[in-house]
Amino acid sequence: MTGFEKLQQAKRFDMQKKPIRQRHYLRPVTWLLSYPAVWKHKLKINRKRMEGVKPPFLLLCTHMAFIDFKVTTAALFPYRANYVVAIDGFLKREWLLRNAGGICKRKFTNDLQLVRHIREVLTVNKDILALYPEARYSLVGTTAILPDSLGKMAKLLGVPVVMLNMHGHYLNSPLWNLKSRGNRIEADLSLLFTAEELKQAKTSEVNKVIRKAFQYDEYAWQKENKIRIAYPKRAEGLHKPLYQCPHCLREYKMYSKGTILGCGACHKQWEMSEYGELKAVGKADDEHTLTTEFSHIPDWYEWEREQVRQEIENGSYFFETQARVEALPNAKGYIPLGKAKLTHSMEGFTLEGEFDHNAFFLSKPSLSMYACHIEYEYFGKGDCVDLSTLEDTYYIYPEGTEFSVTKLSLATEELFIHHRSAEADQRRERILESSASLI
Question: How much is the pTM?
Answer without folding.
Answer: 0.93
